[in-house]
Design goal:
alpha/beta, six-stranded parallel beta sheet, 8 strands
């Protein structure tokens, strides 16, 4: 199955999740988590544990880290530490983050073919934009929506609809590409097909259980359109 099989025609646009779909950001997220824990006088968590905690946003990530290191995570402490985490992450968010194999080639192929591309992530917009430009994808991916760009975020459908509006494409001619149940749920709510990758961050569950229309091991396998 290829992209055109999902719509019966070549898509006008593709919307991409970021973390776990285009990039592996865990090394830098883990670094920011450990710096935050250290400033709170707590032991570091390490990359292996953080990899299992990623998903549902920065606040939930910190909540999981605090719960692991001290057994509790109250709102007041999270409120105090979240700005610390953001400061740490902003300083390192592109240091060790890497694109997954096949991503660069796929994005370039779709861009050359005239397919419009956008990033729709739950990561705060300023970090998402910084990372997209770090990899040189800004020209190919002019629309970047973060979790704080709109009043709602995935799994709500509004970010997908707004991305289509800003790209100037019809929702019915667009496909979502992601790695988690949030991406699948958002696409279903937005009434668009969804492709999933199995290598990302889906809270330890097989993404196939979420029922995407297609699962691909590498995005470049779809470049024939």
């Amino acid at each position: 199955m290829q992209l055109r099989d999902l719509l019966g025609r070549q898509p006008e646009a593709l919307l991409f999740d970021l973390d776990g779909t285009l990039i592996d950001s865990v090394p830098d997220l883990a670094s920011a988590v450990d710096q935050t824990l250290r400033q709170a006088g707590l032991p570091k968590a390490g990359e292996a544990l953080v990899r299992g905690w990623v998903g549902n946003g920065a606040r939930k990530l910190l909540e999981r880290a605090l719960s692991h290191t001290k057994g509790t995570a109250d709102d007041a402490e999270l409120d105090a530490l979240l700005p610390v985490f953001f400061e740490c992450y902003e300083a390192c968010c592109a240091d060790h983050t890497v694109a997954y194999p096949g991503v660069e080639a796929a994005l370039k192929a779709w861009h050359v073919a005239g397919v419009k591309l956008a990033c729709v992530t739950n990561k705060p917009e300023r970090f998402a934009v910084k990372i997209v430009h770090h990899f040189g994808w800004g020209e190919m991916m002019p629309v970047v929506l973060g979790g704080d760009s709109l009043p709602t975020k995935k799994p709500a459908p509004e970010p997908l609809w707004v991305a289509c509006e800003r790209l100037g494409v019809a929702v019915e001619n667009t496909i979502m590409v992601g790695d988690s149940v949030n991406d699948v749920s958002a696409a279903r709510a937005a009434n668009m097909p969804v492709i999933a990758v199995p290598y990302g961050y889906n809270y330890g569950s097989d993404i196939r259980e979420a029922g995407p229309d297609m699962v691909v091991e590498s995005l470049d396998t779809l470049c024939t359109l």
